[in-house]
Amino acid sequence: MAINLEKGQRINLQKVNGSKLQNICVGINWGAIEKKGLFGIGGSKEAVDLDASCALFNGSKQLEEVVYFGNLKSKNGAVKHSGDDLTGDMGGDDGLDNEVITLDLSQLSPSTEYAAFVLNSFRGHDFGKIPFASIRIYEGTPKRVNEVFAKYDIANGANFAGHVSMVMGVFYKRNGEWKFNAIGEPTKDKKLEETVKTVMQQYL
To answer: C or N: which end of the chain has fewer Cβ atoms within 10 Å?
Structure first.
C-alpha cells in the first residue's frame, strides 16, 4: 500500500527490504477551466498550461541544469520530461498525468546533491481556479506506480489559491544516501526562473 506523506516530512529512500529507491516519477494531472456562457447557456473551455520542472544543484547549492518544457532531458539522461502539455484535460479528468518527469537517481552526476521539483502556471492561471490539479511523486515508471511518496491536491488546497507557482519537493543526498523532503509550498513567483531562485535561497 502506498504511504502518503504530509508536506514538510523528510524520508529516507531505503525500502523495507534494504534496497534503495532508484526510479522516481513526478506526475501532474490537471484540467482546462470551464467558462459558462451568457445566462448559463453554452460555454467554453479555457486551456491551462501548467509546467513541471526539475532543477539540479551541486553540493555548493549552485544550479547545474534545469529540465523543463524547453529542455526535455538532462545532459546525462538521468532526468527526462514527457513533453509540454499546453491545455490540460479538455474533456474532463481522464485520470492520466498530463506531464511526467522521471528521475533515475543512479544516473545522476556525482556532483549533483539536490534535485528539486517545481510547478508553474505558464499563463498565470490561479491554481485555485483550475477545476482539478493534482501532483503525485512516486517510485516506478510513468505506466507503473510502485509507491507514492507525496501527493498534493493543489486545485482544492486552500493555501494554493491565489498562487501560480509552487515547490513540490526536493531529493537530497546526505552521506551518500538520497532522501526526500516533501515541501508542497506555494511561492509568490510568477516564472520558472524565479521559482528556481526561491528553491536555491529557501529549500536547499
So the answer is: N
How many other β-carbons are positioned within 10 Å of the β-carbon of residue 83? 11
Q: Which of 156, 148, 155, 158 is nearest to 182 (CA)?
A: 148
Beta 23-30 vs 133-141: how paired, if at all?
A: antiparallel
Residue 15 has a pLDDT of: 66
Grid cell, residue 182, equals 516533501
Q: What is the mean predicted confidence (pLDDT) over 132-153?
A: 87
Q: Quick one: pLDDT at residue 1?
A: 35
Helix (H, G, I), strand (E, B) or coil at 39: helix
C-alpha–C-alpha distance, residues 66 and 104, integer Å: 15
Q: What is the pTM of this model?
A: 0.90
HSE at residue 176, side-chain half, CA atoms within 13 A, is 0
Backbone angles phi, psi at 54, to 5 degrees: -130, 125
